[in-house]
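Usage

Read records sequentially. Each one opens with the input sequence:
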Amino acid sequence: MSIRETLEQQEKKYLSEYAMLSMNTLGRIEPEEQCDIRPVFQRDRDRILHCKSFRRLKDKTQVFLTPQGDHYRTRLTHTLEVSQNARTIAKALRLNEDLVEAIALGHDLGHTPFGHAGERALNDICPLGFIHSEQSVRTVDILEKNGQGLNLTFEVRDGIKNHQTTGTPSTLEGKIVRLSDKIAYMHHDCDDAIRAGILTESDFPKEICEVIGYNTNERLDSFIHDIIINSEDINEIKMSKEVEKAMKKLREFMFERLYTNKEAKSEEGKAIGLIKTLYTHYCAHIEELPEDLLDRINKNQDPTERVVCDYIAAMTDRYAISVFEKLYVPKAWQG
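and closes with the structure output:
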């Protein structure tokens, strides 16, 4: 018996009856030989961790555009916090920790530069629309490895696709990531807003604090404990009604005080204009696209608009700015 088979048998003995077992995967888009050491979801986790899209997350905006301080979250640190929250919940509920980790690490691979401002810009200007969760699946299926894709399992791809509120993941592990994503961004966005001087702990409504805590750490702890307590030994991942209501009120508070805050979002208009300008430019000059993406247009694999979105969505904040400057900002004469 191989190491992988031994690990699969350990899953079968230890994990909850509601867990997604590695041996029960629906498989990959392209069948391939199993690894002799790693079960399928662990293998998917490793593929995501080593791909270029994952590394680029370190230079993509979470909330504050290209922040000057060293301690503000980026899309990468957000992803790591989602992963840790999800793993804590999965381990406590005896669900598949490898699966939640793979989904969590891959959920934002298709996110644009400049956070949700970049996503809105592409969705507004591209007639085909743009949704980052769908782009994340497209990234792992098609765009990574120079067009070969990562050939991930159905369960990981399903969790990535359905990590937003409107999604319905097919596994409990996917449902854990969907909740962990929201918990993570509300926790760290509150923390970053306090660090930036935009909010203080005394600003948070008393009715929320009385339920989930009076500081960021207490709130995170409350969310995770509540999910675990209310999801034990059932085929569902849920919060208590009281905590779920408090989370919705906290989210409304954050939209009012941070996500639409003029100070925090003062540069968003420029970022949106930059993204739309790049989109218009590359639609008119497809010959400037990287060769692997240009091939997709020439071979009629994808329409131009989708491929241009592929290129721009993959950019980091820094690279998008440098490309814009190269195209549109005149250089000083050096004669």
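Summary fields computed downstream for this record:
- The chain has one domain: 3-259.
- The CA atoms of residues 143 and 149 lie 6 Å apart.
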